[in-house]
Amino acid sequence: xxxxxxxxxxxxxxxxxxxxxxxxxxxxxxxxxxxxxxxxxxxxxxxxxxxxxxxxxxxxxxxxxxxxxxxxxxxxxxxxxxxxxxxxxxxxxxxxxxxxxxxxxxxxxxxxxxxxxxxxxxxxxxxxxxxxxxxxxxxxxxxxxxxxxxxxxxxxxxxxxxxxxxxxxxxxxxxxxxxxxxxxxxxxxx
Length: 190
Prior knowledge:
It is built from eight helices and no strands. It is mostly helical.
């Protein structure tokens, strides 16, 4: 039997896992996939913390946005609840349904399930969002969503939330309380 307690073994395993994650993140960020460099050396404590926070933030965003999409699509009978944001939006059908719900415009997804149909569905959803934004989405393309790019998918969902929910709430506040908004604007400009 080992002299190291199970708690110490667990701490060591967590530290080792954190170092592996942070080293992989650093190598990927530098475009350095397994090649020897200073990045393959032992990561600093700050680097470990940043890697853990980054992984934690992405996980939180995925869960939050997935729940938001599921709430929006709760009334759509053709859509089952999502379990993975990067996988469940890849075919574009849920994305088209989401845009139909939030934009209140009738949209019809492509029937097939080949890559061409998936790209067309995502392009249709992006088109509706770009029309609302009155500018093109420069960083997000239909290939990103179909290929399951997590960051771009999360970015797309954020654009949808911002333009269809947050801005709508702000516009409603301006209409309901114009005097309050004017007072707030004058207080800020002082």
